[in-house]
Amino acid sequence: MSLFNDIEKVLITTDDLQARIAELGQEMNTVYSDDDLPLLVCILKGAYMFMADLTRHLTFRHEIDFMEISSYGKSTTSSGVVRILLDLETNIVGRNVIIVEDIVDSGTTLDYILRNFATRNPATVRVAALLSKPSRRRIDVPVDFVGFEIPDEFVMGYGMDYAEQYRNVPYIGVLKPEVYQRI
Ligand code: IMP
Ligand code: MG
Asked: Which structural domain, as residue segments, surrounds residue 35?
């Protein structure tokens, strides 16, 4: 049975994602210039597709780097324990950093990253998040560029997983309840 049969509904279509990501890129193009030479930090694994599509709309010179953070086990709620699984290769002292996240839920992960980065003395730090679930926020974190605000539902696709699967789905969707019993 196809993995697509596990999907109950589409929350954000591929077209809507692409249109909004283009807008986010234009917005960022008005904020940054070549001289800023920002470093875009993709938070793995969930933000990899967003990062790839977003950067194709950027017209200013920039560099990219990757960081892998873990806060979820095989579940749909954050364990609250944040770990760095892969750290930046780049020294961010004096740099203009843009954190690229898939989704801000409780805010725990982003709060951890922001506080961690602050100790490294970057010039500026801004956050681009494809999705935000404001109703779930437990820590107030600044998000400068937001793609979509979504209701309190566990979503998958476009880089985001459930139990490491479904990242390849080209839209944002919600799984059928029985999937959580099976996988
Ligand atoms: P937070 O620490 O609670 O804000 O959760 C942030 C991280 O949890 C994000 O980087 C996502 O990887 C993951 N996450 C939160 N909500 C969802 C969801 O609905 N689907 C998939 N991953 C999620
Ligand atoms: Mg994540």
From this structure: 15-156
Q: Is 6 annotated as catalytic?
A: no
Count of domains for the chain:
1
Q: Is residue 162 part of a domain?
A: no
Geometric angle at alpha carbon 10, from 40 and 53, rounded to 5°: 20
Per-residue pLDDT tens digits for 92-145: 999 999 999 999 999 999 999 999 999 999 999 999 999 999 999 999 999 999
pLDDT at 76 over 90: no
Three-class DSSP category at 20? helix
Best residue among 72, 116, 143 to mutate for probing ligand 1, ranked by most atoms within 8 Å of CB? 72
Rounded CA-CA distance 40/97 in Å is 6
Residue whose Cα lies nearest atom 11 of ligand 1: it is 103
